[in-house]
Design a protein that fits this description.
1309 residues, alpha+beta, nine-stranded antiparallel beta sheet, 42 helices, 18% strand, polyamine transmembrane transporter activity, P5A-ATPase_N
């Protein structure tokens, strides 16, 4: 046992912190704290006179809480833990201390330290002494963070994340240590440590949600404001705001709780019931699924079961449906984990791992044995648990708009504080009572900081989310909609995203004696025993479920091209040792005599040449059944013939596809043969490495480049005959590395993914909007590059540079090389490669063989049409224009080419070839090498990278992270679970899948194509501009009202309650609600909206509008003072006067200023439609403007009396009490009408000036000109812009063909 002493933790005493989950997305910095009694006492004493404000700050700020109440301490003494993630978010967690007995895992127990035979004390300093009870031996310490348990390890003096048995466990150990299950005692101990196998999402009560909402600073401020208004007898508005507050609170609480309920239903859907496990002492035992622990051996049922944990298959095969996790509908076959000494890795051994939430469709086992799987992860440590955690604790949105908004509110708070101080001075000077002074000062605070601002700012985002829903785009993160408005780069997956998920068969290219033959369109025309045909029919992972053949679409299309049949016989039908394998065989058919004799593709002699062909004749029973072979030349072809091909191939062993090996293999046995065969299918580059060199055709690389560069997906196949001594038992235990070598290359499989019809228009739209596009995929580099050319990601004039890295060897450092990637025009023509191809016309029908390649063909008839002419000439400026699957473009000048590719003429300068117009392409292996040996070049490659091929899921996530660190606002669009990490990491992740793994993505599109990308960007830009407009409008509303009050208070005047009510509720609130209904523009422009409220344009806009509003009101008072009939207010007593000319003038001017600002801040172009297209806005505008005009120009008696305005004739409600009316109640309107028209002219002038200011300050080019003239040109803020500038200047970089040596190896040496 490990005794903790102070001496053992000198390092921890000095550092007092630790890093958890290093180099992962969950990296946390951890610090320890203990309660400080003297800090706590001071805090309590200060809180009472501060009206408990420090308590609320403690609730809002976790860092302040720890600094105010706790003291730093070493981790081994800590009672509280401060966790800081990579984004700077802080969390405080309590360290739980529990007493345990010796059944608990020894590595986590801290034993009690015996001072004498009677006294036992704990070894660390906790808040309370720990004394042993009964058989308790020691105690354990841990804390929970985001549903994950972190245990204290006394031997290392650190907290460590509690994981399953999948970490640092070798594959062979699963068999050695756990094959017979775990014992009862071990189970109890593991259950104590890992807890129950539950993804426990508790549903909080309505009261709990309500309290969490109410302690929000904005809600508290609204409650505070309502209280001030009620005390000030501003009852109407206070009640209205209180009703709105309650409705908002109830709605928010209800929606949050419903989301909580739905998440709980998703989490607990697969943990009910019981399961059979293998117990070391008791054999097969049935236990509840909630009591599963890592190490349990599951006895998998035959099918129809959803697994409640992550498990690794140890025995038998398992066919599962991972659709809910990956979005791929095709079943997956899970095979036993290889018996090797390598460490288990979830990414490497996916084909052997069954994930929680996966539906088991069928299990297969040998003889009387069951299918077994070992539990490796439970609860929130499973893949599904990680998904639920990602939803419960999403990545924070670090958007500049939100940060700057809070800073601006702080500035407004300082303005409000200064105004409150001025009010205290002003009302104290006139002898007002203390209560009145306090109320007036607090009222200023509620005016300058409008309580409704958060709701008004978020309204546009909510409307955008509703519009997205109507366009089949669902969002779980409304805050990301605004971020979509700033997207400047979009990353696309390829297969299923840019291209169709289905695949088309184009043919096979057999290899004969080290040479390629011509392409064969129909593989079923190959000879029956041709290894290539058998490979196509057997090298796959297909299976039959409920009578339907299911599996990977590529495997399915490949198998269907053979015309063979797939069977899975029952146990009683087994003829291959003790194991009943799946069987593939040619079909049985019954042709008519005329078809047999006259068929162009099958003649009488063709049938006779087939081996193992038996002719059965019911018309000539005397002949019986005779075999047509060379030794028996008789050929019986009567009119009624049943041709039975007695040829079967049993699939004995399957080696599933490995992403690291990039291939899949099968071991088969043909009925009647004494040996087995190995067939392998996979990446041509990988297959080439395991084949004998003399069997690989000389033009292998040329042909491979020729097809992949033209967008075709190419797979290679190989064959090997195993020794006759290899038995079934040997095959079941053999490792693939032992047999996948010295194989014979047998041919290439040519397939093709077509682009989705929406891909090219969307990519063109994004590029025209100056939004960068790139591809990140797991497919072949040249195939991906061809697709990028086809869809327009690569501009016609761009040079494509391929990056490659040679790893260090023999003491020499790694070398990085830049070379120009091949374009289709620079590749060898396929007919040239076919000159020396083996002619199969004597062996196969002529119609099945392609004599030449036509890039424009799209069907079988055009596939074999010879090319009539060579590629058209083209200029240097367009030398890289793609020609695949498009008619020949017209030769001539650049304009004709642009018309052909539908490129706008305004982009001419953009597409003119320059020495700096280039992009990089690289694969996943190169990416890893660059990050390791050339880290200084990563930023440059990412800035100009265009195609990232052969990328693993974690590499996709790394790329997204690198782009974000360069300052890009990244959107990611993908359709599978391999994109899940990148979708969650991106600012705007858009999933095209309904799988559960994609639920954590901010956006999910029900339309399975990339047309959702422009929709999200347009709605994001509209929502962002609307949020800016609403924020500025609410800020200007508060400042205008602040100006009004500050102008009236020194004149002993103020607004009436109904004036405030009309301004606050009817004018401002209505406009704040309806402004967000304006829809986005139909076109995405090159310009992007501003992302910061403190940007120069917004600052100029707000400052100018405040200044104009102040001057307008000041000018109105000045015009009033010039009137001959004007008498200033002479109030008696401390109470201000309401009905007077000062109040009337300021009120009329201010309400029109609110209306003018609402129109100005609803300015549409270029991101929104014009505000007059917003019907609700126009109805509100016309209604309020009309009524306000009446109040200003023609305030008839009842209306004037209601609002306490000066009447049309200049009188007040009670003429005798009017302080500034010298009228006698007669209808002498003349001088007052002229004055009112002058005031209205100020309104019109303000409207024009407000629009002019907004037009100027929102014009990007004018703001830049202003900055450069008066402030100076600011340097780029984003790193990618700085890097772009550097690369523009460096005309001699990259050094084409000149290797760059790494310095990392030298540093390591």
């Amino acid at each position: 046992m490990h005794m903790i002493t102070d001496e053992a933790f000198t390092f921890q005493e000095r550092n007092r912190h630790h890093i958890l989950n290093i180099r992962t997305s969950d990296e946390l910095q951890i610090r320890g704290f203990l309660v400080s009694w003297w800090k706590s006492a001071i805090f309590f004493l200060f809180s009472v006179p501060a009206f408990l404000l420090p308590w609320f700050i403690v609730i809002w700020s976790k860092k302040f809480r720890l600094r105010a109440l706790y003291k730093r301490c070493p981790l081994y003494k800590a009672a509280w833990i401060l966790l800081t993630d990579s984004q700077g978010r802080c969390s405080v967690r309590k360290v739980v201390v529990e007493e345990e007995d010796l059944n608990y895992p020894e590595e986590y127990i801290i034993p009690f330290l015996e001072k004498s035979t009677k006294d036992i004390v704990p070894t660390n300093e906790l808040n309370a002494p720990l004394l042993p009870k009964d058989d308790k031996y020691g105690f354990v310490r841990y804390f929970l963070h985001h549903k994950v348990k972190y245990m204290w390890k006394p031997s290392e003096g650190i907290f460590e994340r509690l994981s399953g048995i999948d970490v640092e466990t070798k594959c062979v150990d699963f068999y050695k240590l756990y094959s017979s299950g775990i014992g009862k005692t071990d189970r109890i101990a593991r259950l104590k440590v890992h807890g129950r196998n539950l993804i426990d999402v508790s549903v909080r009560s309505y009261v709990s949600f309500s309290i969490s909402e109410l302690i929000n600073p904005f809600y508290l401020f609204e409650v505070f404001s309502v209280a001030v208004w009620l005390v000030d007898e501003y009852t109407y508005y206070a009640v209205c705001i209180l009703v709105v507050l309650i409705i908002s609170l109830v709605t928010s609480v209800y929606e949050r709780r419903m989301q909580n309920v739905r998440l709980q239903e998703m989490a607990v859907s697969d943990v009910e019931g019981s399961v059979t496990v293998l117990n070391k002492e008791e054999g097969h035992t049935e236990i509840p699924t909630s009591e599963l622990v890592p190490g349990d051996i599951l006895v998998l049922p035959k099918g129809g079961w959803t697994i409640p944990c992550d498990a690794v298959v140890l025995q038998g095969n398992c066919i599962v449906n991972e659709c809910m996790l990956t979005g791929e509908e095709s079943p997956k076959t899970k095979t036993p984990l290889p018996y090797i000494n390598d460490e288990y890795c979830n990414d490497t051994h996916q084909r052997h791992t069954i994930y929680s939430g996966t539906e088991i469709l069928q299990t297969r086992f040998y003889g009387c044995n069951d299918a077994h799987a070992i539990v490796v992860r439970t609860g929130f440590n499973t893949i599904k648990g990680e998904l639920i955690r990602a939803i419960l604790h999403p990545k924070s949105v670090d958007f500049k708009f939100y940060r700057d908004s809070l800073r601006f509110l702080l500035i407004m708070g300082l303005v409000a504080l200064s105004g409150a101080v001025y009010c205290v001075y002003l009302f104290t000077a006139i002898g007002a009572e203390t209560e009145e002074v306090v109320i007036r000062a607090l009222d200023i605070l509620t005016i300058v900081i409008p309580p409704a601002m958060p709701a008004a700012v978020s309204a546009g985002t909510l409307y955008a989310m509703r519009r997205l829903e109507r366009q089949n785009v669902h969002s779980i993160a409304p805050g990301r909609i605004n971020m979509a408005g700033k997207v400047n780069i979009v990353c696309f997956d390829k297969t299923g995203t840019l291209t169709e998920g289905s695949i088309e068969m184009r043919g096979v290219i057999p290899a004969r004696n080290g040479s390629f033959t011509r392409i064969l369109k129909h593989p079923k025309r190959l000879k029956l025993e041709d290894p290539l045909l058998v490979a196509l029919a057997s090298c796959h992972s297909l299976t039959r479920i409920d009578g339907q053949l299911m599996g990977d679409p590529l495997d399915l299309k490949m198998f269907q091209s053979t015309g063979w049949e797939f069977e899975e016989p029952g146990l009683e039908e087994g003829r291959f040792d003790m194991f009943t394998p799946p069987i593939v065989r040619p079909p049985k058919f019954l042709p008519e005599r005329s078809k047999v004799m006259d068929s162009e593709s099958e003649t009488e002699s063709d049938l006779a040449d087939l081996p193992n062909v038996v002719f059965h004749s019911s018309s000539y029973p005397e002949y019986g059944a005779k075999r047509a072979t060379e030794s028996s030349p008789e050929k019986l072809v009567p009119s009624d013939v049943e041709v039975f091909i007695d040829y079967e191939v049993g699939i004995i062993r399957q080696f599933p596809f490995s992403s690291s090996l990039q291939r899949t293999s099968v071991i088969v046995r043909t009925l009647g043969k004494r040996y087995m065969d190995l067939f392998c299918k996979g990446s041509p580059e990988k297959i080439h490495l395991i084949c004998r060199e003399e069997t690989v055709p000389e033009k292998f690389h040329d042909l491979l480049r020729a097809y992949t560069a033209r967008g075709y997906r190419v797979l290679a196949l190989s064959h090997k005959q195993l020794h006759s001594k290899v038995t079934w038992k040997t095959v079941q235990r053999i490792q693939r590395e032992q047999v996948e070598s010295d194989m014979n290359f047998i041919g290439l499989l040519i397939m093709h993914n077509t682009l989705k019809k929406e891909t090219i228009p969307v990519v063109r739209q994004l590029r025209n909007a100056n939004i960068r596009t790139l591809m990140v995929t797991g497919d072949n580099l040249l195939t991906s590059l061809s697709v990028a050319r086809d869809c327009g990601m690569i501009p016609p004039a761009y040079q494509v540079i391929q990056v490659s890295v040679q790893p260090p060897e023999d003491g020499s450092p790694a070398k990085l090389t830049f070379n120009y990637a091949e374009s289709p025009s620079s590749l060898p023509r396929l007919e040239e490669l076919e000159k020396d191809a083996v002619d199969l016309r004597e062996e196969y029908p002529l119609s099945d063989i392609s004599l030449s390649y036509s890039s424009s063909s799209s069907d079988d008839s055009e596939w074999s049409r010879p090319r009539s002419q060579s590629p058209p000439p083209h200029e240097e400026a367009i030398r890289f224009i793609p020609r695949l699957r498009q008619p020949s473009p017209p030769p001539g000048n650049l304009k004709k080419w642009k018309d052909y590719f539908k490129l706008p003429l305004k982009m001419e300068d953009k597409y003119r070839l320059r020495t700096t117009d280039y992009s990089f392409v690289l694969d996943g292996r190169t990416w890893e090498m660059v990050k390791r040996y050339f880290p200084e070049l990563v930023s440059r490659l990412v800035t100009r990278g265009l195609v990232f091929a052969r990328m693993m899921p974690d590499q996709k996530t790394q790329l997204i992270t690198e782009l974000q660190e360069l300052g890009y606002i990244v959107a990611m669009c993908g359709d599978g679970a391999n994109d899940c990490g990148a979708l969650k990491m991106a600012h705007v992740g858009i999933s095209l899948s309904d799988a559960e793994s994609s639920v954590a993505a901010p956006f999910t599109s029900k339309v399975q194509n990339i047309s959702c990308i422009p929709i999200v960007i347009k709605e994001g830009r509209c929502a962002l501009v609307t949020s800016f407009g609403s924020f500025k409008y609410m800020a200007l509303y508060s400042m205008v009202q602040f100006i009004s009050v500050m102008l009236l208070y020194p004149r002993r005047a103020t607004f009436s309650d109904f004036m405030f009510l009309y301004m606050d509720l009817f004018v401002t609130t209505i406009f704040a609600i309806v402004m967000g209904y304006t829809e986005p523009e139909t076109k995405i422009v090159r310009e992007r909206p501003q992302g910061s409220i403190t940007g120069l344009g917004n600052v100029l806009s707000i400052a100018s509008q405040i200044g104009v509003a102040f001057l307008g009101q000041k000018l109105g008072l000045y015009i009033l003072s010039l009137q001959p009939w004007y008498v200033p207010v002479d109030a008696e007593g401390p109470d201000p006067v309401v009905t007077c000319w000062e109040t009337t003038v300021i009120f009329c001017l201010s309400i029109f200023q609110y209306i003018s600002l609402a129109c100005a801040f609803s300015y549409g172009k270029p991101f929104r439609k014009p505000f007059y297209t917003n019907r609700l806005f126009m109805i509100s505008l016309l209604s309020l403007a009309s009524f306000s005009t009446v109040l200003t120009l023609y305030p008839i008696g009842p209306i004037a009396d209601f609002f306490e305005l000066v009447r049309l004739n200049g009188s007040v409600i009670d003429v005798s009490d009017s302080p500034n009316s010298d009228t006698d109640g007669s209808d002498n309107y003349g001088p007052f009408e002229i004055f009112r028209l002058l005031i209205f002219s100020l309104v019109l002038a303000h409207l024009a000036i407000a629009f002019f200011i907004e037009y100027i300050t929102t014009n990007k080019y004018i703001v830049k000109k202003f900055r450069s003239s008066f402030i100076g040109k600011s340097p780029p803020k984003n790193r990618f812009k700085i890097i772009e500038d550097e690369m523009e200047i460096s005309t001699d970089w990259p050094p084409i063909g000149s290797p760059i040596q790494s310095t990392v190896l030298d540093m390591e040496q």
